[in-house]
Design brief:
The complex is a heterodimer of chains A (about 270) and B (about 280).
Chain A lengths: L2 H16 L8 H14 L1 H33 L1 H16 L6 H8 L3 H25 L3 H9 L4 H34 L9 H10 L3 H29 L32 H4 L4
Chain B lengths: L20 H28 L11 H12 L2 H34 L1 H15 L7 H7 L4 H25 L3 H9 L4 H38 L5 H10 L3 H29 L9
Helix pairs in contact in B: 2-10, 3-4, 3-6, 3-8, 3-9, 6-8, 8-9, 8-10, 9-10
The chains are: A mainly alpha (about 270), B mainly alpha (about 280).
Chain lengths: ~270, ~280
């Protein structure tokens, strides 16, 4: 069912070529700028730099977030006591800490990685807590009655049970991380995709700006596709797909069953229960 | 299976103390307050030991004092109003555009399949990365802030409306079709009420995102508002005051989320609890 994207792409291509203005260069020009940049290697180096920061920050956030989340999720008391605090922390814009971090930690990779870590920690942490909470109590009680040792219980019961929501959290964290990756390179960064876009923007190299923006879009999309793919492979037991036929959409199974891809779940959806 | 992250509710299965509902709730509130106090104390200890320079993390007492001063100053509320205004307008436009489109794609599977790829691609596009090009096209004014907020908010609302429309039971849908109920009436009386819980969840999600994005845009461009104040204070080296505004941004997002949850519970009292 690719007709709509193709039509839209063609329409944008044609209309931008016809109505090319200074600030809206034709799609062909932007793509050409992006391609030459990639070929010459400078844009590629920028891309690898930014991607490296992003993946490092995300990896640290996953490790820290999942471990703390598993611990907090285990104890209902701890979970409910820390809920407002964590909600408040999530609502605080990470972008606001950029000047602070730049001033104290300087420019270079570590402060950017730290910023990405700060921003991506919260969705992963909150979703891990929700994931542990969503494990059916029957499973936990069975594990307890069989006196399954602590470490084994974590690895084999709690972690796989929480995995769908954890993946959903990682997907949200990825989106946040890509934004922070761009934003962290605003002040005084010589290399990086975000700084490329911003410098092109301020020196009015409009085709380069658009080219870089399109590249970021592609990177973001590819990363999320890779994540969904990895989720599908890892969580094969979780997905059930019902066939769809005819004009009217077959309603998906009850919202509480896992027929919906887990990536579409989010912790805030779970709070919809009064 | 319902995910139980309900704020303040007594844990259903594990309470071995048998507390009455009223007292259990107060106990939970006290525990939550205690957590806040513990966090504050950790903050104070970290600043007093001087692990992190006061330029990066000012002491809570300084921030508290400046907060008290700021709350009574009109420019504080002006900044808050500017941020909230931009966020709210963007959110409303996103709802007006996203809800009908989502309902349509949720009802007709052809529409859903055609638009899925496009929506996926647009959704994973980092919103703030468009800022430089938008600065060039629209310029640095409120319209740009509202546009960016709109783009960030429209996708969650669209997707939630889509899920909601898909959750109309097949029996209801077929009955409606049997009676040949006209399309507009069908949307208004059957699909929209069925989709309302999902839409409310989407609006709640989008509201927090709207505040976050509005503050983010203000920091990155120099539009007036809470974010701009943060930047100004950082540049002037007045870090405690910057933290006052950072905390304000967090409080705004938290308050918006809280109010949306309240509104959701009020408006959806007629419905049995349905997840998403």
């Amino acid at each position: 069912m690719l007709w709509l994207p193709v039509v839209v792409l063609a329409a944008v291509f044609i209309s931008s070529s016809v109505n090319a203005s200074f600030y809206l260069p034709s799609l062909a020009t932007s793509l050409h700028a992006m391609w030459t940049g990639l070929e010459s290697g400078t844009l590629m180096a920028d891309l690898w730099y930014s991607l490296g920061n992003l993946l490092a920050g995300l990896a640290i956030a996953i490790v820290v977030g999942v471990s703390i989340g598993l611990v907090i999720g285990e104890r209902p008391l701890l979970r409910q006591a820390t809920a407002p605090l964590l909600d408040f922390a999530r609502a605080t814009p990470t972008v606001a800490f950029i000047p602070v971090i730049i001033i104290t930690l300087g420019i270079g990779s570590p402060p950017k990685i730290f910023l990405i870590f700060l921003g991506t920690l919260w969705p992963i942490l909150l979703n891990t807590i929700a994931g542990v909470a969503s494990i059916s109590p029957a499973i936990l009680e069975t594990a307890r009655s069989y006196r399954i040792p602590f470490r084994l219980r974590f690895l084999k019961v709690v972690l796989p049970g929480a995995a769908p929501l954890i993946f959903a959290g990682v997907r949200i964290a990825l989106a946040v991380g890509v934004i922070l990756m761009v934003v962290s390179e605003i002040y005084g960064s010589a290399i990086g995709l975000g700084s490329f876009i911003l410098q092109s923007g301020s020196s009015f190299r409009v085709a380069d700006t658009w080219g870089g923006t399109i590249l970021i879009g592609i990177v973001g999309y590819v990363l999320s596709v890779l994540l969904v793919w990895g989720e599908y492979l890892t969580l094969g037991w979780y997905f059930q797909r019902a066939p769809k036929t005819g004009l009217r959409a077959e309603p998906r199974a009850q919202p509480s069953s896992p027929a919906k891809p887990a990536s579409e779940l989010s912790i805030s959806q779970s709070k919809g229960t009064p | 299976m319902a995910v139980t992250t309900d704020l303040g509710a007594v844990p259903a299965s594990t309470s071995s103390k048998g507390v009455k509902v009223g007292r259990g709730r107060t106990k939970m509130r006290l525990l939550q307050l205690l957590t806040f106090v513990v966090a504050l104390m950790v903050w104070a200890i970290v600043t007093f030991t001087g692990l992190i320079s006061p330029l990066a993390l000012p002491s809570p007492i300084d921030v508290g004092k400046l907060f008290a001063i700021a709350v009574i100053s009109p420019e504080y509320w002006l900044a808050v109003g500017q941020t909230l205004g931009g966020a709210l307008i963007g959110l409303i436009i996103a709802a007006v555009v996203g809800i009908p489109l989502g309902l349509v794609t949720g009802t007709y599977s052809v529409a859903e399949k055609s638009s899925r790829l496009l929506v996926d691609m647009l959704r994973s596009f980092p919103v703030i990365a468009i800022l430089p090009v938008f600065l060039l096209i629209i310029g640095s004014n409120d319209r740009m802030k509202i546009t960016v907020v709109f783009i960030a908010c429209v996708f969650p609302i669209f997707l939630q409306a889509q899920y909601g429309a898909q959750s109309v039971g097949s029996m209801v849908a077929e009955t409606v079709r049997c009676y040949r109920i006209p399309r507009l009436l069908r949307f208004r009386k059957v699909i929209l009420p069925a989709a309302t819980p999902s839409i409310m969840t989407g609006v709640r999600l989008a509201a927090t995102t709207a505040v976050l994005v509005a503050v983010g845009v203000e920091i990155l461009t120099t539009l007036p508002g809470v974010g701009h104040q943060v930047l100004l204070d950082q540049i002037n080296g007045n870090t405690p005051r910057a933290y006052v505004f950072i905390l304000t941004a967090g409080l705004l997002g938290y308050a918006v989320n809280f109010l949306s949850e309240l509104a959701e519970k009020r408006l959806l009292r007629w419905r049995p609890p349905v997840q998403s």
